[in-house]
Amino acid sequence: MKTLIKFFIVLILNLILIYQSALSSDKIKIGLIVPLSGEYSNIGNSIIKSIRLAINKIDDERIEIIPKDTKSNPIDTLRVSKKLYDDGIRIVIGPVFNENSKYLDELKDITFLSFTNKIKQNPSNVISAGVNAISQINTIKKFKRINNLERSIFLIPKTDYKKEIELAINKTNIKLKDKFIYDKDPTLLTKQIEKLTRYSQRKQNLKNEIKRLENSSITNKDKKIENLKKRDTFGGINFDSVIIADFDESLKSVTTSLLYTDISSRRITYITLNQWFDKSLLKETSLQPIYFPSINKDNYNKFIDDFLKHYNSKPNQLSFLSYDLIGLIYFLLYDNNFKVSKNIFYKKNKFKGKIGVFEINKNIITHQLNFYSAENNEFIKIF
């Protein structure tokens, strides 16, 4: 009898081990390489929290996230990525920064979904998943078409981002009157904007028109002269809109220079790039209305509320993107019977995430964004 009991105990233990082994083999491991120490650790930790929210939502025990600390360093990024490769992982979310991808082409069997929005010079196995300039300019094209804006000037600062913008302009074939490159140094910027807007000529036009009226015998000339003296310039400009590829205080410096040269947002259309609903724009009434492409605001607000509820802190912007990337990976794996293969990322599947609809083309993710205006102390959805 005792022998029989021992037999059943051993049998049950073996079955448990077999079951656990089967569960382990069914695990789908996804790497995550983000800064968890150092200057940018807050970004990495926020991303991990967001991914936990996404995993809980999916509720599939097969998915396992293996996080590694890149320390925001390309050498450390490669080192931890090699560890993930040795552990059999072939799909990795990250890195956060474009410069940390520079050595990842050594691991061609891994597909990396980077948070970068840069589309130039990424290794062939790194998919750029950020909200890039191509997605934004395509959305601006739609707005221009709807509003018959055919004489736009694209204002581009002299920064590292300049080449990204120029590449996106070429790839999207956006119709422009001109491109204008400017210095971010405010002492140089104002003079450059004056030249762009023909400010000196328009001021002289005003003086000439006042003088002409003074020497004329037309009726109501005094009233007309009085009105002209309230103005700063006289005469038209040869563009109907500006697209300003800038952010934060630099964006405000550009709009201030435009206002100084008597080019307000009531006279032409101010457009900029994704501002992530920066509330400081709502305080700058002088630049309103200003229009920009961005992610789905309602979904973004719901995500922030959910994050706050679970962690009692606000997420960074990349956390929202990481939430969608988990959904994308799960969707593609599901569509491929949960077989891990780099080919799943190149089937041109469209995916509807929290940000909006997006698809992978070669090694770039493009998003179908919404369009908003900042005016009257709120962000208003245009489409």
| Rg (C-alpha, Å) | 28 Å
CATH architecture of the largest domain: 3-Layer(aba) Sandwich
- The number of domains is 2
Taken as a percent bin, the fraction of beta residues is: 15-25%
Q: What would CATH call the class of the largest domain?
A: Alpha Beta
SSE order, one letter for each helix or strand: HEHEHEEEHEHEHHHEHEHEHHEEEEE
Quaternary state of this entry equals single chain
Q: What is the 3D shape? A: elongated
Helix segment tally: 12
Please describe the biggest sheet, giving its number of strands, its sense, and whether it closes into a barrel: 7 strands, mixed
Can you walk through the features of this model?
This protein is α/β, with parallel strands linked by helices and 383 residues long. The protein has two domains: 28-130 and 298-368, Response regulator (Rossmann fold, 3-Layer(aba) Sandwich), CATH 3.40.50.2300; 133-295 and 371-381, Response regulator (Rossmann fold, 3-Layer(aba) Sandwich). It is built from twelve helices and 15 strands. The chain has helices spanning 2-26, 41-58, 74-86, 133-146, 162-172, 186-196, 199-214, 221-228, 248-260, 280-283, 297-311, 317-335; strands at residues 28-34, 63-69, 91-93, 111-114, 126-128, 152-157, 178-182, 241-244, 269-272, 290-294, 350-352, 357-361, 364-368, 370-375, 378-381. The strands form three sheets. It has a seven-stranded mixed beta sheet with strand order 7-6-8-9-10-14-15. Strands 2-1-3-4-5 form a five-stranded parallel beta sheet. A hairpin with a 4-residue loop joins strand 11 (350-352) and strand 12. Helix 2 (41-58) runs parallel beside helix 12 (317-335), helix 4 (133-146) crosses helix 5 (162-172) and helix 7 (199-214) runs antiparallel to helix 8 (221-228). The longest helix is centred in the first third of the chain and has 25 residues, at 2-26. It is elongated. Mean pLDDT is 92; it is low at 4-11 and 13-24.
